[in-house]
Amino acid sequence: QVQLVESGGGLVQAGGSLRLSCTPSGTVWRFNYMGWHRQAPGKQRELVADITNGEKTNYVDSVKGRFTISRDNAKNTVYLQMNSLKPEDTAVYYCNARKIGADYWGQGTQVTVSS
Fold it and tell me: Which of 50, 57, 45 is CA-nearest to residue 91?
């Protein structure tokens, strides 16, 4: 059973930075798609950023210019570099990875940005 393991969340002041990482616990073939979603209290889960196998990236408008998604295909790992963090970025961040016939989610990591 493959699980996605996230790390890098925490508490940071506004304007600070955090780097999230997500890697599978077991051996899997390369994921076609990897992405980060987030869910703030009382809100629906939203896509933050994603990256395809061909490294095409996509970002929600609210994080463009501040967040960068990247992947290390050798490690099947995806990263989310978050700079210039704002209090409204506070949420639980979830990693998502897909390959043909499978869709995996991480357990979530809390990111809290204080003003």
Answer: 45
Please report the beta strands in 1-115, taking only residues with DSSP state E, as ranges in sequence order.
Answer: 4-7, 10-13, 18-24, 33-39, 46-52, 57-59, 67-72, 77-82, 91-99, 102-105, 109-114
**Tens digit of pLDDT for each residue in 59-86?**
999 999 999 999 998 888 999 999 999 9
Q: Residue 73 — left, alpha, or beta (φ > 0 → left; ψ -120 to 50 → alpha)? A: alpha
Tell me whether residue 81 is exposed, middle or buried, using C-beta atoms within 10 angstroms of its C-beta: 0 to 12, 13 to 18, 19 or more. Answer: middle
**Max intra-chain CA distance, the chain:** 42
